[in-house]
C-alpha cells in the first residue's frame, strides 16, 4: 500500500463525488490552504467561512506573493512559443470532449460542484470549435489559383456555383483565404470580369478602412488581379466563419428564388434587434461621409444568433464610382433600402417590396403599430426642405436602443461567466503540460540531476499524489476535484505542505506547494535552455 491516503484514509472518503466536506468546498480550496484531509502541517489552518481568516489569508497571500503568475512569466513566454505552430493543426476536433453529465444533480448542496461547473458550456464550446474547424478548412485539389496577391489556401464560400451578376453587375464570388503577410484568415469577394478604368475608383476603399462598427464587415483592401485568368476586382474583408446571409436564414433557397413567403414568422424583438444594429452601422457610415449603397438580404451577414453585419460596403463606391447622385441622396437611399430590407424579412418574402402597400398591411396585421410606422418612415420620400437623417431615426427608436443595449450587457455578463470557467482550464492545462514535459524524460533517465534520483524526484512523486492515488483497499481514486485542487494550489504556490510517498513506500517527503512550484519552474527553465541549445 502506498500513497498518502494509506496513512490518512479519512481524506480518501472526503475526496469522492467531486465534492468535499462543508468546511472545504472544492472551489474555495483552489486558492487557499487548510485542507484538513491532507497530511498538512500548515501553520494557519484556514476556515473560508470566517471573514477574518479570509482577510488574513488574502493579506498573507498578498505579502508572500502579490501575483502568483508573475513567477511564471518567462516560462509562460516559453509556452507561448510552444503553441505557435497551431497553423499546422490537423487533428480531428473532439466535439464531445466534455459531454454533459446527463440530468443535473439536484441533491447537491450550495458548496458542492459537479465536473461541469469547471468547464466551458457545451453549447458555446461546440459553436466555437465548429467555427475554428470551418476557419481551418482546406481544399486540397482545388482548381483555384494557389496565390492571389499575398493570399493563399483559397476555399470558396458560395453556397451555389451559379453565376449571378444581378447585384453588382458582375458575377461575384466569395472565398476564404490566408494572408501570408500576417497569417490571418480573410474573406475575399471577387467581381469577375471587372476592368479598372479609373485609379481613383479603387482608392475610395481607403475611407472604408477607417470605418469601425460592429455591424459592418470591416474592409481591409481592394486590388485587381489576373490570377483567375480574367480581370477581377478583389475586396479583402474580415472573415466570419459559418456565417449565413439574412436571405439564406429567412427565405431559404426556395423562398429566395421563387419569391414567395417562406419560413416561420420572425419575432418582433428580432426585427427590432436588426433595426438597431443597422441603424448603428448607418450612423457610423453616414458620420464618416459615406453611404452603404447596398442593404439587401443577400448582402447582410448573420454571424451569430441575431448578430448581423452589412457585408457589401465599399463595393459600389468602386464599381459605380461615377454615380451622378450626391452623398446626401445616396444616404437617403440607404434609409429606403433599410426599410425594404425590414419589410421583406417581416413578411418573410423577398418579393414583398414589389407591392409595398400589401406588404405594409401584412406587417400591420402581424406586428405592432410602432414597427409598421418605423418601416413607413424609412420608406417615405424625404421632405425637400429638410432631408431625413439617421440621427432623427435613432431618436425615434430610443426605447429599442435601450432594450438592445441592456440585452447586450446581459450577454456580456453571460460571456464573462463562461470566461471565468475557462480561466481555470487554461492555467491548469499549461501546468499539466509543464509537468508532462518534466516527468520521466527518457533522455535524462540516467541523469542524477533529473527526475528519478535527483532533486526533481519530488515532482514525480507529486504526479503520483495527484493522479495515481489509491484508497485503503488499493482501488484507484478517480477524483477530479482532488486533481483540480492540487493543480490550482501548485499554480498559486501556497504554503500548505503535503506528504509524498514513493511507490515502494520506502521514502516519504514533506514539501509545500511553494517548493513544488519552484521545482516545476526551475525544471521547466532548464528544459527550455536545453531546447535552445544548438
Ligand atoms: N465576410 C464573410 N465572412 C464569411 N463568410 C462570408 C463573408 N461574406 C460572405 N460570406 C459567405 O459567402 C456566401 C456567399 O456570399 P454572397 O454575398 O455572394 O451571397 P449570395 O447569397 O451567394 O449572393 P449572390 O446571389 O449575390 O451571389 C454566403 O454564404 C456568405 O455567408
From TrEMBL:
Where does the UniProt annotation locate this protein? Cytoplasm
- Keywords, A to Z? ATP-binding, Coiled coil, Cytoplasm, Metal-binding, mRNA processing, Nucleotide-binding, Zinc, Zinc-finger
Residue ranges of region Knob domain?
438-534
GO terms, biological process = mRNA processing; nuclear-transcribed mRNA poly(A) tail shortening
UniProt GO MF annotations: ATP binding; poly(A) binding; protein kinase activity; zinc ion binding
Q: Name one GO cellular component term.
A: P-body
- Tell me the residue numbers annotated for binding ATP: 189, 238-245, 298-299
- Please give the Pfam families that the UniProt record associates with this protein: Pan3_CK (PF18101)
> Where along the sequence do coiled-coil regions lie?
399-437
At the top level, the lineage of the source is Eukaryota
* InterPro entries found in the cross-reference section: Kinase-like_dom_sf, PAN3, Pan3_CK, Prot_kinase_dom
- Give residue ranges for domain Protein kinase: 160-458
Free-text comment on this protein's domains from its UniProt entry:
The pseudokinase domain, the coiled-coil (CC), and C-terminal knob domain (CK) form a structural unit (PKC) that forms an extensive high-affinity interaction surface for PAN2.
Q: How does it assemble?
A: Homodimer. Forms a heterotrimer with a catalytic subunit PAN2 to form the poly(A)-nuclease (PAN) deadenylation complex. Interacts (via PAM-2 motif) with poly(A)-binding protein PAB1 (via PABC domain), conferring substrate specificity of the enzyme complex.
Q: Family per UniProt?
A: Belongs to the protein kinase superfamily. PAN3 family.
Q: What is the documented function of this protein? A: Regulatory subunit of the poly(A)-nuclease (PAN) deadenylation complex, one of two cytoplasmic mRNA deadenylases involved in mRNA turnover. PAN specifically shortens poly(A) tails of RNA and the activity is stimulated by poly(A)-binding protein PAB1. PAN deadenylation is followed by rapid degradation of the shortened mRNA tails by the CCR4-NOT complex. Deadenylated mRNAs are then degraded by two alternative mechanisms, namely exosome-mediated 3'-5' exonucleolytic degradation, or deadenlyation-dependent mRNA decaping and subsequent 5'-3' exonucleolytic degradation by XRN1.
Q: What is this protein called?
A: PAN2-PAN3 deadenylation complex subunit PAN3
Could you tell me which species this protein originates from?
Glutinoglossum americanum
Q: Taxonomically, what lineage is the organism?
A: Eukaryota, Fungi, Dikarya, Ascomycota, Pezizomycotina
